[in-house]
Design brief:
The protein is 64% helix and 0% strand. The chain has 843 residues and is an all-alpha fold. It is globular. It comes from Komagataeibacter intermedius NRIC 0521.
């Protein structure tokens, strides 16, 4: 009930509103005004001035809220109409799935999916950030993540808009880095606002607050909430609570915020509304507009919170905020300001239409699509594991598998060259040129002349920057990332095994080849382009009108070659964009749309060339995790163990063979090239791996070698591992390929445990002492972290393990060598019996 002391004010407010206001509405307005007045008076304002200022602020916010709602309605109506226009009768499910994840056909815009545009926009914002930091000579300093330098950057960012708000650090590099980070954050804020958010510019803004769900949640108990509340409350600026509803106390607000953060709602582009108390269904625009609702008193308070409950350093928080902001913008550009609600609404309408024509197969497909994980994967709404402790244990175990199983992965990655050449072929690039470009990209020295210039071009597009930013390599374990220090260990391991260098170099080379291919064709009409290039561009919505605008932006880049780059589209004039104007679209919207198509083409083709996990495969995996988690958290982690390292072969089958077989009918020449090239490169990879452990290459004329090379190269797919009993691309046995390396290791561990027990108890089943010792040594050899690196494995074998095995079981190495030659037809170029210690003694 409204307070009677406000009665005369209520009547005045109602007259000003032009309509009767409910007592609850009036009470909320005046309670909010009183809260603001109290804060302003505590800052030194008189009651009269505080009342005027509080009323002014509240009035502006109410008007803005009304504008937001009206604008969002128009945006969502337009987005819904665009989506419905893309649905065709009888293929609603395929069309709707294609809007989210793309379709493998040659129709216009078939590949221009939400997933593709999201990756493109993330690259568009991250690439220029890396480029600007590099040009300023600050990239190495920022990515080093030094605590003191981080603190200086945060303090300089805090005082950018108001230098008097804090003392200068005196660190010129930190000030320059702060300006660059701030400028690029502002770009992401503008992108979100253009797409439908309404994020105001805030003073003393360091970056989007990062929140580590697990650190905040703790064990999920009352004491964990109190610990978070007691830590953050003294650090918050009182303005944080200005916009609370009349019936929302600070305590209620903080508890609701903690619950949202502890449940992981903040991680996605369309999570439930949180923080400022917006009511109603999930709304990405509103949620994005509230990202800055937790305001801190100072840069040091922000840093202290970030270290205790967030990412712990400025760069990671900035990257996280920019990545999510770009994802927000990309998703809202297609699905409106409330992506999940939009998707469900369109799916429900399509289901009703399909029911009316008795098309129950389509109904089932649409229901499966609606209930599946595809939309959540694209919007970034990852399903949080059910139990923190079990999830952490699972993440550590999978990380351990990575650093004990992927030591030779860069050698296994040689067939990537054939896959990128296959994608290049579908863009009208000759195969020989593709192979030469790949060699120039990855081989240091003479072939890599102009590497820095090529890298500058690639980084500007956001290509090949994963290693620069210290991102976890997800090509071979895309299901989820490891945690904390273990995550950094995996990153370090991927630097040591060469995967980081290989992946970044291949992406740089392939990305710049694509843009150069566009640049050198700029003099041709769309009809004069190579048919496969024309087909690829059409799949990303680039037809004759778009091409005529794009080719006018061709420019000589740092490497001396002509390129068509997304950044050059910023220089297009209104006259240049006139051919693309339609349906009251503005020039800026036309530019953004064209830039999105070009970036999506480049980034998605690079991702396809590197066989990076696609959204459908990711949805399949995450859906299985979520289903298992609902049964039991342990079962959920077991499913993650089972699927470990399978994202790559599953993606290979879907993307590589989907392109060659289903895109435009069976491409016989493309299939033949892929099988032959991957088999040859698979044999090269096999041979290199054999030579690094002292073996000679296998006989290429032996049919068993050919089949093994097909498996190694991916030409026969993962199923070849089962058919031929060979090792998989990751160097795992058939059992590991089937059930995941963890279960194989667990089986070996249990056998070792049982043998130890039997030997201790002296049972009849106890193994012989020498056998037990040999098994123990073999297990240690397999499970030694960093011991399987392709350049350390042989050294450890010849210096340590072979010597120990011969000591334990004289004659073992001779029998081992004979067995390899007899069973595999493979000789050793350096006999296991060769003793480096004896060789050194002789010298």
């Amino acid at each position: 009930m409204a307070d009677r002391s406000y009665r005369h004010c209520f009547e005045t407010a109602a007259r000003a509103a032009g309509r009767a206001l409910s007592e609850d509405e009036l009470h909320e307005v005046f309670a909010s005004t009183q809260r603001r007045m109290d804060r302003l008076m505590s800052e030194g304002m008189s009651p009269q001035d505080a009342a005027r200022e509080a009323g002014r602020q509240l009035g502006m916010e109410r008007r803005a809220a009304s504008l937001i709602e009206e604008r969002n309605q128009k945006i969502n109506l337009s987005r819904r109409s665009e989506i419905m226009a893309r649905l065709t009768e009888g293929e609603e499910a395929q069309a709707l799935e294609g809007i989210i994840a793309g379709r493998e056909n040659t129709q216009r815009g078939a590949a221009l999916s939400v997933a593709a545009t999201t990756h493109a926009l993330v690259a568009d914002v991250m690439g220029p950030l890396v480029t600007d930091l590099d040009r300023a000579g600050l990239l190495r300093a920022v990515t080093r993540r030094n605590h003191d330098f981080d603190r200086d950057i945060a303090r300089e960012m805090w005082r950018l808009d108001d230098p008097a708000s804090g003392a200068a650090t005196g660190n010129e590099h930190a000030r320059q880095a702060a300006e660059i980070l701030h400028r690029h954050q502002e770009k992401v804020r503008a992108l979100q606002n253009e797409a439908g958010a309404w994020i105001g510019k805030q003073e003393h803004y360091v970056t989007r607050q990062s929140h580590d769900m697990w650190k905040i949640r703790g064990n999920g108990g009352e004491e964990d909430y109190r610990a978070w509340r007691d830590s953050i409350l003294p650090k918050l600026d009182p303005r944080t609570f200005d916009r609370l509803d009349a019936d929302t106390s600070e305590e209620h607000y903080l508890r609701a915020t903690w619950q949202a953060l502890a449940s992981g709602v903040h991680e996605s582009a369309n999570g439930s509304d949180w923080l400022s108390g917006f009511r109603g269904p999930a709304n990405a625009a509103k949620r994005a507009s509230q990202e800055r609702s937790l305001m801190f008193r100072s840069a040091d308070d922000w840093l202290a919170y970030n270290e205790q409950f967030g990412q712990g350093n400025v760069l990671d928080s900035v990257m996280q905020g920019m990545e999510r902001g770009a994802r927000n913008a990309a998703v809202m550009r297609t699905l409106g300001t409330n992506p999940r609600a939009m998707f469900d609404h369109v799916a429900d309408r399509a289901i009703a239409t399909a029911k009316d024509r008795n098309d129950f197969k389509t109904v089932d497909k649409l229901r499966g699509l609606k209930d599946g994980a595809l939309v959540d994967v694209v919007t970034g709404r990852a399903a949080a594991p059910q139990n923190k402790t079990i999830a952490a244990i699972g993440a550590y175990l999978r990380s351990y598998q990575a650093i004990t199983k992927l030591g030779g992965v860069v050698l296994s990655s040689l067939p990537d060259i054939a896959v990128t050449a296959s994608v290049a072929r579908h863009n009208g690039i000759p195969l020989l040129e593709s192979y030469m470009n790949a060699l120039k990209s990855v081989v240091p020295g003479t072939l890599s002349k102009g590497t820095r210039n090529r890298r500058q071009i690639a980084h500007m597009m956001g290509v090949g920057i994963d290693g620069t930013l210290g991102a976890i390599m997800t090509r071979f374990h895309g299901e989820d990332g490891p945690l904390g220090k273990m995550g950094r260990t995996v990153q370090f391991f991927h630097r040591l095994n060469g995967l980081q260098y290989w992946t970044d170099a291949m992406k740089e080379g392939f990305g710049t080849m694509l843009t150069h291919n566009l640049g050198r064709n700029a003099g041709k009409d769309f009809s004069g382009l190579h048919p496969k290039l024309r087909q690829s561009l059409t799949r990303y919505g680039i037809d004759e009108a778009e091409w005529n605008v794009l080719r006018g932006t061709a420019k000589e880049a740092a490497d001396g070659n002509m390129h068509i780059l997304p950044a050059e589209l910023d220089h297009l004039t209104e006259d240049d964009l006139k051919p693309l104007l339609r349906d009251n679209i503005t020039h800026d919207e036309a530019r953004n749309e064209l830039q999105s198509k070009l970036s999506s083409y480049i980034i998605d083709q690079v991702r396809e060339g590197m066989t990076e996990i696609d959204p459908r495969t990711q949805a399949l995996m995450q859906g299985s995790y979520a289903a298992a988690d609902r049964v039991n958290p342990v079962l959920g982690q077991a499913m993650r163990m089972f699927m470990q390292f399978k994202s790559f072969p599953l993606t290979h089958i879907r993307r590589v063979w989907g392109r060659e077989v289903t895109r435009d009918g069976a491409d016989v020449a493309g299939i033949a090239h892929l099988i032959v090239a991957t088999t040859v490169l698979g044999y090269v990879a096999m041979s290199l791996k054999a030579m690094t452990v002292g073996k000679e290459p296998r006989d290429p004329a032996d049919w068993r070698t050919v089949l093994a090379a097909m498996v190694q190269g991916g030409g026969a797919g993962i199923y070849g591992d089962f058919l031929f009993g060979e090792q998989s691309r990751m160097g795992n046995s058939t059992l590991e390929t089937l059930s995941g390396p963890f279960f194989s290791d667990f089986s070996n561990f249990m056998k070792l445990y049982n043998n130890t027990r039997d030997l201790t108890l002296g049972t009849a089943d106890a193994p012989k002492g020498k056998t037990f010792e040999m098994n123990l040594l073999q297990e240690a050899r397999r499970e030694l972290p960093f011991g399987n690196l392709f350049y350390t494995r042989a050294a450890l074998d010849y210096l340590v393990f072979y010597r120990l095995q011969e000591m334990m079981n004289p004659g073992y190495l001779r029998r081992y060598q004979q067995g390899i030659q007899q069973n595999q037809g493979q000789k050793f170029w350096l006999s296991p019996g060769w003793n480096p210690y004896q060789a050194m003694a002789v010298q």
